[in-house]
Amino acid sequence: MLNQRIIEDMKAAMKAGDKERLSAIRMLRAAIKNREIELGHELSEDELFAVMARLVKQRHDAASQYAEGGRPDLEAREKREAAVYASYLPEPLSEKEINQIIEKAVSQTAAAGLKDMGKVMAAIRPKVQGRADMGSLSALVKTRLTKTG
Predict the structure, then answer these.
(1) What is the pLDDT of residue 149?
(2) How far is CA 44 from CA 1, 39, 51, 87, 91, in A?
(3) Distance CA 27, CA 54 (A)
């Protein structure tokens, strides 16, 4: 379903002559294909979201490096590519939703401190994949478990 939407968008970009969007979508399809080869199966929707989220993060990181290097042209290009990838991701979770998911995971896993962080993150990951930055989420979980432990 999502894969089909990406293919249709690629065709539309070709017809419209939108070379930049076409290039970004082709890179996305290549990243998806590479991941499918790594895993040996067609990607589930959650796995697709993980690939896209990784690409968005890479583009944002590259954009910030170009900004530091005084290359606003390349920074803008990276941000536009990130926007293309982000358009396929589900709506991001609100801070309130993230905190509710963390609290539920902490109670379900009976986490008693930082030593249980892996269990909590494993419980949270499927619920937030592609909808929240895992680095920020990890920091929130760590803060929450520090209060517990």
Answers:
(1) 56
(2) 10, 11, 11, 18, 18
(3) 12
Contacts made by residues 21-30, CB under 8 angstroms, sequence distance 24+:
21/84, 24/80, 24/81, 24/84, 24/85, 25/84, 27/55, 27/81, 28/52, 28/55, 28/84, 28/85, 28/88
Whether 123 and 109 have beta carbons less than 8 Å apart is answered as yes
Neighbours of 77 (CB within 10 A): 18
- Name the pTM for this structure: 0.72
Identify the residue with better confidence: 34 or 134: 34
The answer to whether residues 34 and 43 touch, using CB atoms and an 8 Å cutoff, is: no
Where do the domains of the chain lie, and which CATH numbers do they carry?
A: 2-86 (1.10.1510.10), 95-148 (1.10.10.410)
Q: 57 with 133: CB under 8 angstroms?
A: yes
Q: How far apart are the first and last CA of the chain?
A: 43
